[in-house]
Amino acid sequence: MADILWVENNARFLMAVRNLFLQGHSSTVVGNLADARKLLAERAFDVILLDYDLDDGKGDALLADIDKLVPPPVVIAISSHDRGNDAIMAAGADTICSKTKFANIDAVVARYLAL
């Protein structure tokens, strides 16, 4: 079981998939960069699911904060569009699991936690 920080502001997407695909994990959801930074300063997470289009900026901006964490969590870009996922990857994310392929998220999480 992974402790996941999910940075996502699309409430409809969250409601549709949270319990369906991440039921075997503990997940904390925040909808913006400010709340994500606050949580990252308070506790460690195994995995961060990171969307690109957030209320207070772009998800790739969070990688500068994540890079300072020891040990570093696995970062998975989860934008619905390639431009967002590419930007998060360029900033240092580990992999992508687009919202269009979110049914695979549990396998992606498991693969990276096994490394």
Write a compact overview of the structure shown.
By secondary structure, this protein is an alpha/beta fold. The chain has 5 helices and 7 strands. The chain has helices at 11-21, 33-42, 63-66, 82-90, 105-113, and strands at 3-7, 26-30, 47-50, 53-54, 57-58, 74-77, 95-96.
Commentary on this structure:
This protein is α/β, with parallel strands linked by helices. The chain has one domain (3-113): Rossmann fold (3-Layer(aba) Sandwich). It is built from 5 helices and 7 strands. Strand 6, helix 4 and strand 7 (95-96) form a beta-alpha-beta unit. The protein starts with a strand and ends with a helix. The model has no long low-confidence stretch (mean pLDDT 94).
Spatial ordering of strands, largest sheet: 2-1-3-6-7
Uncertain runs are none
Assign the CATH topology.
Rossmann fold
- Derived from helix and strand composition plus strand pairing, the structural class reads alpha/beta
Q: Look at the structure and name the CATH superfamily.
A: Response regulator
Rg value: 12 Å
DSSP strand tally = 7
Mean model confidence by pLDDT: 94
Task: Summarize the amount of helix as a percent range.
Answer: 25-40%
